[in-house]
Amino acid sequence: MVVIMKRNASQEEIEAVIANLSAFGFNVHRSSGVNQTVLGAIGVKPGFDHRIIRGLKGVSDVKRVTEAYKLASRAGRNASTIVDVGGLRIGGHAITVMAGPGSVESEEQIRAMTAQVACNGASLFRGNILKPRTSFYEFYGVEEGRLELIREAADRGELKVAIEVTDVARLDMMSEYADILQVGARNMQNFELLRALGTSNKPILLERGLSATIEEWLMSAEYVMRCGNTQIILCERGIRTFESATRYTLDLSAVSVVKAKSHLPVFVDPCRSTGMRNYIIPLARAAVAAGADGVMVDVHHDPANASGAGLSALNFDQFAELIVQIRDVAKAVGRSLTEGGETNGPRQ
Amino acid sequence: MVVIMKRNASQEEIEAVIANLSAFGFNVHRSSGVNQTVLGAIGVKPGFDHRIIRGLKGVSDVKRVTEAYKLASRAGRNASTIVDVGGLRIGGHAITVMAGPGSVESEEQIRAMTAQVACNGASLFRGNILKPRTSFYEFYGVEEGRLELIREAADRGELKVAIEVTDVARLDMMSEYADILQVGARNMQNFELLRALGTSNKPILLERGLSATIEEWLMSAEYVMRCGNTQIILCERGIRTFESATRYTLDLSAVSVVKAKSHLPVFVDPCRSTGMRNYIIPLARAAVAAGADGVMVDVHHDPANASGAGLSALNFDQFAELIVQIRDVAKAVGRSLTEGGETNGPRQ
Amino acid sequence: MVVIMKRNASQEEIEAVIANLSAFGFNVHRSSGVNQTVLGAIGVKPGFDHRIIRGLKGVSDVKRVTEAYKLASRAGRNASTIVDVGGLRIGGHAITVMAGPGSVESEEQIRAMTAQVACNGASLFRGNILKPRTSFYEFYGVEEGRLELIREAADRGELKVAIEVTDVARLDMMSEYADILQVGARNMQNFELLRALGTSNKPILLERGLSATIEEWLMSAEYVMRCGNTQIILCERGIRTFESATRYTLDLSAVSVVKAKSHLPVFVDPCRSTGMRNYIIPLARAAVAAGADGVMVDVHHDPANASGAGLSALNFDQFAELIVQIRDVAKAVGRSLTEGGETNGPRQ
Amino acid sequence: MVVIMKRNASQEEIEAVIANLSAFGFNVHRSSGVNQTVLGAIGVKPGFDHRIIRGLKGVSDVKRVTEAYKLASRAGRNASTIVDVGGLRIGGHAITVMAGPGSVESEEQIRAMTAQVACNGASLFRGNILKPRTSFYEFYGVEEGRLELIREAADRGELKVAIEVTDVARLDMMSEYADILQVGARNMQNFELLRALGTSNKPILLERGLSATIEEWLMSAEYVMRCGNTQIILCERGIRTFESATRYTLDLSAVSVVKAKSHLPVFVDPCRSTGMRNYIIPLARAAVAAGADGVMVDVHHDPANASGAGLSALNFDQFAELIVQIRDVAKAVGRSLTEGGETNGPRQ
Q1: Is C19 in CB contact (< 8 Å) with chain A?
Q2: Which of residues 153 through 182 in chain C touch D, CB cutoff 8 A?
Q3: Which of B77, B148, C36, D94 has CA 20 to 30 A from B178's CA?
Q4: Is ipTM > 0.90 here?
């Protein structure tokens, strides 16, 4: 932590700040120029609230030197984390394709979709049973348990299943059927939920909030990790900007930033961010080229009649085409869609 | 709803869209030019999902004509709503001042603060017992029940009490002690919580989400209203933008927009948006001048030692000064801090 | 400047950075902890490009301690600047009202408007003769010289005149007729223009760019000041955000930030930011309450038939009402619309 | 154009709007429901200012049906434009690599760089001689004519040259030496410059403004095209958002949107957007995978000592690696770095 004193800070004020920092166990170095004094406080104090110092008299600014997260940081753990989901290795050489409907509608749909997803080579089924919508007047997804049905259909296709959780109350029930628990963008800072997930033994897929900085996103991951669960997959799915040609702005630079700052694997969802079917394949290719460890897409057997986000879902033919295209891009960046395909590591 | 067909849409496609709209009960008017056909679908269908039409072949775009909300809209109800909180009238002639600590720390704090807040003429106490933070390493507020204590202290000062709720599980318990249930920015689209609040008999204070448009905010209000609870107060507290000199960007235009589009009262919180104590009073004055019905501020008996957001809290002297200053501005715009002070209505 | 070294920086790297800083004349203090070294470089080097240090081996980050601007900073000059425009004092006790059409259309318009503006008590006429538009198909303002006409009409009403300049070539011609040279948001970082204005003897009204941070805005002011012209008035007119209910988001917190960081006067333009006539008066009131030194509004004798931004212009009755309302708010915050009205200073 | 009347609009108001639209030559269709009337105005009137209608009494909103640009629109011209720069075909099968220093420093630098750029297979040299900076205290690039030098060095390496123009006065001089005239982000809406470029016979490289929507960017292209110059290459280089981990947020979705809406070629600049050397290669790969027609990168023989944006420049080894990597990704999406390499067209 670096403490920048005000230009006109008095000796007493400076000494009070130094005493305060020392009391918290920091090693303090003082640099005084003609106009201004800067204090360097060296030491790692995970529980320390730097605002205590910012509020002291004579203090102009406090700048953090270390990142606000530790367990999620690559500074703490250099090797990339590979999340093992019952044999499906996420974050390694292979790129994971996760697919499913925006919301589950019927038994037939689940069967058709898991079969299709599996035969095209995806390994992870997205089986959302809830679909919270922004308007009361729009479609609100079926809530009751199709979980067993999803589990069965997925098992038949040898798919792993990710289920979105939105509250602590349903966590146990969902954990019985899910291989991965997904946290939607709106819950990225739902700390009660994060705490509960921190004690779960299921891997977590943590979406970035629409207005969350990458740092805040990693701080949410840190939060879960501090509670004991370190199996976390991040997912970029667009941030809110002034551009309205797409629903949100997909931030593919975030893939590079996450790879530099953290050891956790990162997915990209090009459907929710763009909101437009014909932008999905190019952006899925771009995600893989940027270094993403996985791609999450909406697939629907009949997008034109989908009750919900049909506009941003691929039909089966388009999904098959997506797989072909991202396979080629994966190869171009030294990866593959299946483990063990290539021997050289991913390109940096 | 206006349906804009693609330039090269075929007659069959156009007719299929018309048939579809008619089947849903819309009255359809067709306008065909040399290059393009536009369909006007007249009729109010609250439950209608316009994406069904957008997904049809030959459709280029669908534009909503009416607002996405109805109960919250001034188009439906012209008179401004006054929320009556046990005699405290919010949204009328008087401007409401709501004040309290960022988070409740101790019994002494509660007593000192309610006394101070009351004697300065505020009418609403903000008694947050939870303080979810963005980082695990920062202060996490005391969770156990100081609710009874807050209730007693508030009653002594004849203050009403607003308490933030973050999940459905604690709703009943909190409702026993609170006069107003507050929904924080992060929960603005927590639809499970909104639904539960829709069946509550307590007024709701609904903060705008950090990346929520005004329309989405009003749609969240609509959601609660559709569930039966129409006693809603909105609260603007800053949106996320590229500007970093303040924590968030306080959107005071939102006060004008809400007043034009909706009949609901609207508060402004200048503390959370700016994050800086010395910007609070000017922006509180501006909020009142812009037409806000209330101002919500953080007050602390010892901001320098506050465990939490002390930087953005007023001390007691500053709070007293705030009251004096906004009283003068309120008068300048035809309002007052107490009901019955002036007889002329608020300026538009 | 604080230089944060990487965790694994070697002794040679650290020493090379120290040598580099010393060579530039900085006084360097080294703080080494168990994991990390931080260097404090004390000294004010106006011409120093900190990126030279950031590019050195072993450097993790460089944080500026002092502001990126000096002449514009309140740290350098504590007293607020009053810009004297031939007797009209901007930034003092009185709040300046600047008004005029979005673009000048005809001789009659100019006469009607200057008369109206003057009789209502405004002191500054906005006489734009150019109107660059975002689309080729939209109205493009008359370019030829109505400047003489504007000058005459303004003199008749004893108004000062502000004219927008967009390029260096027309600067001399415009300077003959204008009292203030206005730099539009799109030219805030047109450094050739800023340099030319730096050698002008006319005061500059510098609008904030749509995507400019407050720091960048003050850096543009600094740029002009470094070239010799210190008579600068800032003008907040909205920033681009995700909110689309208003054209731009008026950032009234910027008034407080500018007042804290700089000694320059600041205006607010509520017309361009909102794009809607009925939001102008409440936001003009809010600007004055927030501490702005002036308000700039579009006025038109017939807004419904204005060729250009008629939607965001007040008609004459509304303008008269605006004056009445902001006069009351000005009084409430210890100011007035005319110099010498009140003796107590503006409220902080 | 669709005109939505207010709920309580009178018959006279509706008829006045219809008469107005008819007088402008529109074909008007009226759709009246129980509460509301909607008017469809069919007809293409390029010079029409829709705000004239929005300002009429009883009008609630006006929605454009057709795009605000025509010459730049794919609706008007389906085949993709290939810009031919003296034999270098931009927008065809081959992906163009444009490289050069952030600003030209010396004769040696120019020679070393053009040689290096050419031998690695890039075809376009970026020879900026001006470097406008945001702060007076930072490096301001040499202004006098190194243009001849650049021209000679580029010719030796058989490279085409792009030069940034910032004002009309220098246009003729620069045109003598440049193959492509580049318009920087800050000048995207400098309409005087755009008009002058509209009469130039050189192709234009038009960067997207930092806060410009894709629609506004295409409107600027339209502006140039309306003036007669249809040889335009677009360049995405990041937009301003709340995220601060990168300098700007690279909007790769914009590539897909531009490809869908327009027939013009589009480049991506991953250096300026990220501001960080180690993010450039992954994002250049992603740009190519997303469908970009070219990539623009900063290269420097000694980035650590670059006077200016050295942090975001590749050194020669990194540039060679970039070429290898994007060649592989280009192949994966059915393209190449040289014309005639592959016979199958680019993937959609």
Answers
A1: no
A2: 166-169
A3: B77
A4: no
Q: Burial-class residue C111 by CB neighbours within 10 Å (0-12, 13-18, 19+).
A: middle
Q: Radius of gyration of chain D from Cα atoms?
A: 23
* Cβ contact, residue pair D42, B36, below 8 Å: yes
What is the rounded CA–CA span in Å between residue A83 and residue A232?
7
Token pair for D332: 């994966």
The b-or-e profile of A142-170 (16+ CB within 10 A means b, else e) is eeeebbebbbebbeebebbbbbbbbbbeb
Beta bridge pairs of residue C236: C268
User: Cα(B241)–Cα(D243) distance, rounded to whole angstroms?
Assistant: 9
Min Cα distance A218 → chain B (Å) is 9
Task: Round to whole Å and give the CA distance between B42 and D328.
Answer: 54
C314 contacts in chain D (CB < 8 Å): none
Write the CA distances from A12 to A19, A33, A58, integer angstroms: 10, 17, 9
Residue of B nearest to D240 (CA): B242
pLDDT digits (tens, 9 = 90+) for C123-139: 999 887 765 455 544 44
Which letter does DSSP use for residue D15 in this model?
Answer: H
Contacting residues of C for A43, CB less than 8 Å apart = 33
Taking the CA of residue C230 and the nearest CA in chain A, the distance in Å comes to 23
Match 């057997």 to its residue by tokens.
Answer: A301
Per-residue pLDDT of chain A (348 residues; tens, 9 = 90+): 888 888 788 999 999 999 888 888 888 888 776 677 888 887 766 557 777 788 788 888 887 777 778 899 988 788 999 999 999 999 999 999 999 887 777 788 888 889 988 888 889 998 877 654 555 444 444 455 678 889 999 999 899 999 999 888 889 988 999 999 999 999 999 888 999 999 999 999 999 999 999 999 999 999 999 999 999 999 999 999 999 999 999 999 999 999 999 999 999 999 988 878 889 999 999 999 999 999 999 998 877 666 555 668 899 999 999 999 999 999 999 999 987 544 445 665
Sequence-distant (≥ 6) Cβ neighbours of residue B113 within 8 angstroms: B100, B101, B125, B299, B300, B301
- All structural domains of chain C, each given as residue ranges with its CATH number in brackets, are 2-63 (3.30.70.1140), 83-332 (3.20.20.70)
pLDDT in tens, A19-33: 888 888 888 888 776
How many C-beta atoms surround the C-beta of residue B54 within 10 A? 15
Cβ pair C42:A38 closer than 8 A: yes
| Interchain CB distance below 8 Å, C136 and D223 | yes
Beta bridge partners of B314: B299
DSSP E strand boundaries for A256-329: 266-268, 294-298
